[in-house]
Amino acid sequence: MKTRIIQTARTCTTTDSVRLSSVSKLYGSGDNTVAALRDVSLGLARGSFTAVMGPSGSGKSTFLHCAAGLDRPTSGTVHLADVELSSLSEDALSRLRRERIGFVFQSFNLVPSLTAAQNITLPLRLAKRRADADWLTEITERVGLGRRIKHKPGELSGGQQQRVAIARALIARPEVIFADEPTGALDTKTGKDILTLLREVVDGLGQTVVMVTHDPNAASYADTVVFLADGEIVDTLDAPSSELVAERMTHLGD
To answer: In this predicted model, which residue has the larger pLDDT, 252 or 153?
Structure first.
């Protein structure tokens, strides 16, 4: 039984941070063509937390890459607010990702030689912009790094490094944050702390978060779960619990 699509996963509107319209992504050619995404249309509302789930090969990573402007769809369009990504040159697309999209990865992707503060402000320095000192203080306090801001990644725990990554994703006040398995390299307790932080980023700052995950417990922190199978959206689940998500994952082929 399919659940009703609500605000975070619905027909695209002008209040969406991200909108995918009839997006398909093909790899290869001829008899070797593989469809990673098939005619996907989805709107992700501002200030929402959406989890994207599916079995291996379902198209989760391709979905994230196309939605975040890391890859171009074969057909269809992707909008970041009012900007259609395929209309941009590679330089303009790189600039947009740096200035209007935040990323959080499983492997943290911090620069070992830089302090936490320098890692957080790196996107601004690359964009030749000054960091707002008050905003830097606010987000480092919000993510719980106030006393560790001068430490380098090697001096921080995995959870602290991921907090640096989340602060880095927030520093440019992005339209949306994409999180790719953000708790995959963390123990259960630390992972819960990071998920609680992402939830607080949505509720406290009005941030839009899109998280790819394989973990039903992680998905339960979201407002809506979008399920992919064979490159298509096959279901959504609102106000998810880990039990409902796990049960739905076992019946994606039904």
So the answer is: 153
